[in-house]
Structures are given as C-alpha cells and as structure tokens.
Amino acid sequence: MAPQLVIDTLTLHFGGVTALSGVYQEVNPGDILAVIGPNGAGKTSLLNCISGLYRPSAGRIVFEDREITNLPPHRRAQLGIGRTFQNIELFKHMTVLENLMLGRHIHMSQGLVSGGFYWGRARREEEVHRRRVEEIIDFLEIESIRHKAVGTLAYGLQKRVELGRALALEPRLLLLDEPMAGMNLEEKEDMARFILDVAEEWGTTLILIEHDMGVVMDISDQVAVLDFGRKIAEGTPEEVQKNPLVVKAYLGKQ
Amino acid sequence: MRSRNPFVMDCGVFTTNYREDMAILHHPAAKLKVLTIAAVFLFLPFFVSPYYVSVANLIGIAIIGAIGLNILVGFTGQISIGHGAFMGVGAYTAGILTATLGWSFWIALPAGGLMAAVIGGLFGIPSLRLKGLYLAIATLAAQVIIEFGIVHWPALTRGPAGMVLPAPTIGGLVLNTDTSFYYLILTMTVAAIVFALNIFRTRAGRAFMAVRDRDLAASVMGINIFKYKVTAFALSAFYAGLAGALWGHNLGMISPEHFTIKVSILYLAMIIIGGLGSVMGAIYGACFMTLLPIVLRELADFFGGGFAGLTHAMLAMQEAVFGLLIILFLVFEPEGLAKMWRNIKDYFKLWPFSY
Fold it and tell me: Which chain B residues have a beta carbon less than 8 Å from that of A123?
C-alpha cells in the first residue's frame, strides 16, 4: 500500500533555532498516527509544515503522490488536508452553524454577486450544505448549541466545534493538535470516541498530537516520537512504550 | 389575537425546513414590522416638509456609504481611511459620464460604482502584507493620491472649481427635486441593505468574517485570504462609489471639497458609533451622524434664543461634541448603537423580571 503522506527529511530553522531536523515519516491511508514528545520537541511545527503555515527550510512533503511543499495553506485545504489547533482558533463571533458552514467553503462555489442576490443557485447551495453540516452536528451531538456564538461556549464544546469545522471540510487527512488538552476524563472519552468514529466511518487518515499517554496508546495505530526536532522512535504503541530512547526522553537518564 | 410583549417575537415560532430557518425574517411579527417601516418610508414625502425629505436623502446616501465601509472594516477587519476618496472616484466617474459625455445617469451610476471598485481593489493590494496601523497609512495614501488627482487634473475634473451635474431623468420625469430623488435613493438604500444582509449569510460573507476573526484558521479552511481582502476593498469601494455618485447628482454639483479625509473620518465614526460588523449598526450610525449636526443646530437656535453670538458659539462646539461622542462610545459601548438596541430588547424580553 502506497503511503498517503510522505514527510521526506524535513528540516525547519527559525533563525538559529532548529525546530525540525531531518524528520522522515510515512503515513498510510486510514491510519491514526500519534506524534508525541516533550514540550518544544517540534510537534506543532511539524503539523504547521504539513498544513502550510510554515515553509520548511529543507525537505519535501508529498500528499497523495503530489508534492505540496510550497503550496499555500488554502490550496492544501482544497486538496483535502484539514486541521484543528492547540489553542482553539474558531471564529468566535460567529455561531456554531456559521463556523461549520465555513468548513464547507471549498465545497461551495457561489460568489459574492450570486450570494448578494440570494436567488436560485446561492440559496439552493446554502440548503444543500446546511444539510451536510447538520449531519456533522448530529454526529458530534451539538444540536442544542447550533445557533450559539462559539465565543460563549464552554472549552470542551469549543474543541468539539473545532473538530466539526475541520470535518465539514471532508478532509482525507486530518491534523489534530492536542484535541483533548485541558479536558476532563468524560470529555476526553467523548473526543476519543469521535476520533475513532471519524477514522472508521469516514476512512480519514489522522495525525494527532497528544500528551495523554493513555489516550495515545488506546487509539493510535502508529506512534512517532520527537525530541529536540529529531524523530527518535517510531512504531506501534507497544513498541514505542518499551523503547529505551523514549523512556530517556521523557524521564531523563535512569 | 392575544396581546403579547412586542419584544418577544421569536417565542413559539418553529421552522420545519432549512429554507425557513435560514430566512432573514422568519417571525411573522418581524415581517410585519419591516412592512410597516417600509410603508412609512414609502409615504414619507407626503406628510413631511421637503426639508426633511432632503435630510432623508442624505441619510440614505450615508447608509449606503456606511454599509460599504462596514463591510471592509467591521466584517473583514481591514482598516480604511480612504473611503471619502472612493466616494469621490464614484462621484467623479459618474459626473464625467453624465455632465461631460452626456451619458445616461442609469449607466453612469453603476459605472461610478465599478470604477471605485477597481481603484479600491488596487489600493487593497497592500493588505496582503500590511495590517492595522500600517494598512491605515497605506489607505491614507489612497485618500491623498485620489484627492490630489481630482484637484490636479482639471481637464477631466475641472479641478478645485468642481463640476455641475445634470439631474437624472427617468422616462419623461426629471429627478430634480428632493422628493423625486427620494425614491431613487430609497430604492438604492433598500437594495444596498438587502444585498449586504444576503452576503453575510452566504459563502463569501462568511469568508470575510473568517479573515477578520482568525486569518490563519481561515487559510487552513481553504479560504484564499488575499483574494477576499482585495474583494472586500473592491466591494466596499463599490458601495462608496454608488453613494458618491448619488450624492453628487443629488447635490447637482461636486468639488474636491466633498471628498476630503474629513468624510473618511466621518464614515469611520458612523460605523464605530453604529456598531462594527453589523449591517444594522451601519444604518443606525449613518442616521445618528447625519441627524446629530441638524439636532445640534436646532438646539443651538433654540437655546441661543436670538443671540447670534451664543448660537454661533454653540455651533462651533459641534466638532467637539462629535469627538466626545466617539470617545464615549469607544469607552462605554464599543459595539455601538446596534448593541445598545439589542440590550434594550433583551431587557424588555424579561421585563418585569430581571432574570
């Protein structure tokens, strides 16, 4: 099986600081890859390179046999790469529905003039995509808050809405940056269930950054471990758990 | 019919399909309210004096211009201090077409809007790299350059002397009175309001707001930030151009004096006081800022009581009152009149209970 995403010896410098150094990783379609590592290891930098917010200093990124290293972020989204952020980046003043409808942006086509007149096609398009968005709302169980401004919602719900917005894009590769940070156990379990459902029902490939090792071990197919910008280990959760380099990176020398 | 609290209109109204749910007015009472307001404005010239009709015309023009600026500043989060100049581009384009070339006003009006949109889009290109104060200075440059162009290109614009514009005609009717012009402006204002409301419930409008709120998140949602920023500049300038063309033909003359930076600032004040990022806010702000000097003048006349010196001193206070109001709004209600009105409605929804 050909990998869906190839991160080919990626290096990223910020001035004198090396955030990523020669990271190589393949991701197979439908897999859940967890990226773990201590703070400052370069996990978020890696996601930012994949979604196009950072331009790597060296190396290539190939998505579905197409090099995307130099594409701007919105082109990558159009190719089917969605993401969420560590610090929620929702459109706070807009309602849950509007946020999710924004996720449909690349699947919609009506422009300014058509939308301004709201005749025929623009209205039909809104209705068709509203239906799709409502399916996601059902899936994430956020029916009761669909007309609420997201700025007023509790943190855990905002995280869920952000996942919904990314799902509305119908990504084939979804990047989740700490989807469960700051959640209580119950919220984490809900989120883990949603992530597993997305992978199973939609066949979406997932790359997630997570600090909760319990969650990582439970839901991921593959784990990649970063430390100081280098990949120090890779494998199934069980393999990584036993890897002495990983233990050292997390706990220091024994 | 039971008598109900008029502030609680959305109680007991259910929708059964998405089209109803997405309608701008989905409460029967709201539709009734809008129809009533429309009827009042339709018959306004029949029961007020021509002076007030001319004031209504100015308000309509200000509403179109303010909605345009709010699209850019309030909804897309880009600042512009060149709005007055973009109005000038529209007014002069339409004016040159009607007065110099003798074209029909009905072609010149959209042409003025389109020309302003092109120029506005051009001056929006720096927004790719510039944000906040830096963008403000770049748009200030647009204001200065356009003003300079108008003054120093007399072959086209007749320079500082200005141009005299012919009244538009429709069929055999010449729109040379405020009352006849009123219906033109009313139509344009309603169209401008509806168009803006529609934009912000569809794809492009949501993209504008996404660029304003979180541009990084917008880009990973597949939104081409640069395209939407430039589009916002062009659309905003299109509204400004229409407002300018209408204003010029309503006044019957235009000069560089009409489109100075003071106008740009006035429009910024309108949307700040009315409410950034709200179509209704732009309307309230336009009404407020147009009526304020008129009310102040009446007050000055009233309290001046015939003492010319006193009246004069009070009129001189106008600018200070303007400035003071903007500061007070920024401090006490940054979301403007639109928010104040919402607060009042929310209060009466629960009245007489406070929770």
Answer: 19
Domain range enclosing A36 = 1-80+171-254
Question: Number of A:B CB contacts under 8 A?
Answer: 117
**ipTM of this predicted complex?**
0.89
Q: How far apart are CA B140 and CA B72, in angstroms?
A: 15
Candidate from B21, B203, B220 with C-beta closest to A115: B203
Domains, chain B, ranges and CATH? 51-350 (1.10.3470)
Distance from the Cα of B346 to chain A's closest Cα (Å) equals: 16
Angstroms from A241 CA to nearest CA on chain B? 33
* Gap between the Cα atoms of A250 and A223, Å rounded: 15
Chain A residue numbers with beta carbons less than 8 Å from the beta carbon of B204 are 110-112, 115
Strands B253-254 and A66-67: unpaired
Determine the residue of chain A that is closest to B198 in CA distance: A116
What order of strands is seen across the sheet that includes strand A32-36? A81-83, A173-177, A205-209, A32-36, A222-227, A230-235
How many Å apart are CA B240 and CA B247, to the nearest integer?
10
**What percentage of chain A has pLDDT greater than the value 90?**
59
Judge whether A118 lies within some domain.
Answer: yes
* Chain A residues 128-157 with CB within 8 Å of chain B: 130-131, 134
A52 and A101 fall within a common domain: no
Q: Using one digit for the tens of pLDDT, what is the confidence trace for A215-245?
A: 888 899 999 999 888 998 899 988 888 888 8
If asked whether residues A162 and A232 sit together in one domain, one would say no
User: Are residue A176 and residue A165 in the same domain, yes or no?
Assistant: no
- B102-118 pLDDT per residue, tens: 999 999 999 999 999 99
Pick the last residue of a domain from A169, A185, A217: A169
Tell me which chain A residues have a C-beta less than 8 angstroms from the C-beta of B21.
Answer: 130
What is the predicted pLDDT for the residue at B1? 43
Whether B223 has its CB under 8 Å from any CB of chain A: the answer is: yes
CB atoms within 10 A of CB A173: 22
Q: Residue B161: pLDDT above 90? A: no
